[in-house]
Write the structure tokens for this entry.
Amino acid sequence: MSEGWVSDSAWNDTMAEAEGFTGYALRDWMARGPLEELRAQRHAPCVVLAHSVALYRAQRAAGMPGPAGASGHSMGFFSAMVAAEVVPLEATLDLIRATEDCAEARFPAGRMGMAFVIGIAESRIREELELHPDLLLSNINGKAQFTVSGPRPALEAFVSEVTPHSLKCGLLPVGHPLHCDHMAPLIPYIKARLEAWVPRDPAFPLVSPLDGRILEGGFEAWEETIVSIASAVNWPLAVRGLKGLGTHFFECGFGSQLKNLTGWIDRDLKVESLQAPRVW
């Protein structure tokens, strides 16, 4: 993840900011491991979020023009909030911490999670979920790409039943039932934990990852960020909202999963990754 950035001052300043708030050795884990630390339930979200924000700031410092708008898939929307200067990086790291604390207090360890399914229509997914009422559709990533959330035993049964009919299906390395009503009871407690953070109006338009609308003002954007923990992402709608702002997209983070996902949704869009340093 850190390849090409370890000597960049803007990247290092952001990572140091995240390390100071979390107390985690994020850059050491990224460079030297151990991999178990990097992938740990509490560490991985902080690494991904801090790196995404650091990439954005480093690319802007290198001459990248400001965006016409932004959104993000799941925790990627946290990064967009920071990039748009609605809240500081520390506020989104605090949101991660509050979510982890509340989820660990509510759900027994190893009992909840998420699974992904690729290659099955939404109507078929919903039919399968009727057989597993404890499971909920949690992300609509494309016409035939979804996630479901809920108790792990039900997820394992669901994966076993759906796998023969899918292109790919499996459990995600997530310990909480994110983006569904199972998380809804935690929202008031999470909001109470975050009262100290006062949002500002975004520096550029933000598109909701839940329904694709343009969010009006900082308070609505921050509210959307918090409730997204218990709400399903609808990425095709988010892409439609972003397309109203332009057709040249940049993915700000490690890897190219969102780049590929967005390209499959709309082949007319140009999507590039910001993972590597570049000349603007």
Notes: The domain at 112-171 is CATH 3.30.70.250 (Alpha-Beta Plaits). The longest strand covers residues 112-118. Residues 104 and 208 are 27 Å apart (CA to CA).
